Amino acid sequence: MKVAWILINASHYHLARWRVFVQHSSMQPIMVEIANQDASFDALSATESCGVERVTLFPGKTWQQASGLKRCHAIKKKLDRLSPDVICINGWSMGGSIASLQWALENNCRVVLFSDSNRFDLRRRKILEWFKGRLVSLADSAFTAGTTGREYLVELGMSPEVVFVGYDVVDNAHFSPASNQLSGSSHPVLAPESPYFVAAARFEPKKNHVRLLQAFAKYRSMAGDQAWPLVLLGDGKLRAEIEAERDKLGLGESLVLPGFAGYGELPAWYQNAACFIHPSTTEQWGLVVNEAMASGLPVLVSERCGCAPDLVENGVNGFTFDPYDVESLASLMARMAGPDWDRAGMGRASLEIIDRWSPETFASGLEAAVQAALKGGGRKANWLDRAMLRALAHR
């Protein structure tokens, strides 16, 4: 029994999940990535396959560098050769997922839909949601990130009995304080010696960095000389805007901008921090929250992040907040840095919670999704579905 995962490009996250699935599954799993370069930051791409059977259709390229027609042809050619019994596809909008779905329907292959979308990600339009519901209905089962992702797939028309949770996990052991103490993880050279807040994200609009800096400035006015610094890990097209806001608010050296931290560097940045903040105005999930929690940190997480309902227990391991409310975030920062909170206890709570969201969670959830797909009778596409797939296959 062969199961193939078709994805844009494999990162450390994907390999950590798939490796554990390979170890636990009685099937023959194979990973098929369209390209092996990340369009924005190569640090997220993984050169090692870590014991995973992995095929790259366009080596040395990003997926956008191959035309939709070429991607479609390469995917179908590879699937013809592999002849999998089940394929896993990432979503329904880009990177070859539609071409893979089209092939599956033509070759009596079962489909597991991977998704971490939520209803609140974007402004939803009824006609587009109707078409999306048609696409979703052609999958045999689904594997989604968490509670809000599951609710959205059910809203789109999938039966709750074939929607499973646990897709968005990270390699908790890579970030574990115990693991990194054993490996001799050191203090980052650019990190403050004192306790500090840390955030990690690409510098793009939805990550909400400007409001975070405004909240940080208000927190500093509350805390005075006792204020913690803030470290922003990341880089991107909005760096100049963030630097301008830093200067406007007079944050000076209290704001540390070290750039983009590689996968191997992240544990040290997290474990030398005192609290993690993720302020996005919208986020399908927020894997950096998993990373921070696996590092034993208390967290402040925007309520617009898909992970918030599942990973954040208010007052236990952190707090959620309205990402548009600068005053609220500033107050939470002041509370978290104050003397009345047991941050060590909150960090331990983060470790306990994230232990339930591990690569093993992914493996067991995917096994259940695959079995559900195999038990189904197979999906049939009508003429409208086939026309829709033909129109979208080259995206």
Could you characterize what this model shows?
The protein has 395 residues and is an alpha/beta fold. The longest helix is centred in the last third of the chain and has 17 residues, at 359-375. The strands form two sheets. It has a seven-stranded parallel sheet with strand order 3-2-1-4-5-6-7, sandwiched between helices. The protein has a six-stranded parallel sheet with strand order 10-9-8-11-12-13, with helices on both faces. It is elongated and about 65 Å long. The protein has 16 helices and 13 strands. Helix 1 (12-24) packs across helix 15 and helix 3 runs antiparallel to helix 16 (383-392). The chain has helices spanning 12-24, 68-82, 97-106, 126-136, 147-155, 172-175, 177-182, 209-223, 239-249, 266-271, 287-294, 308-311, 326-337, 343-354, 359-375, 383-392; strands spanning 2-7, 28-35, 54-58, 86-90, 110-115, 141-144, 163-165, 197-200, 230-233, 255-259, 275-278, 299-302, 318-321. Helices cover 41% and strands 16% of the residues. It folds into two domains: 2-169 and 358-392, Glycogen Phosphorylase B (Rossmann fold, 3-Layer(aba) Sandwich); 172-354, Rossmann fold.
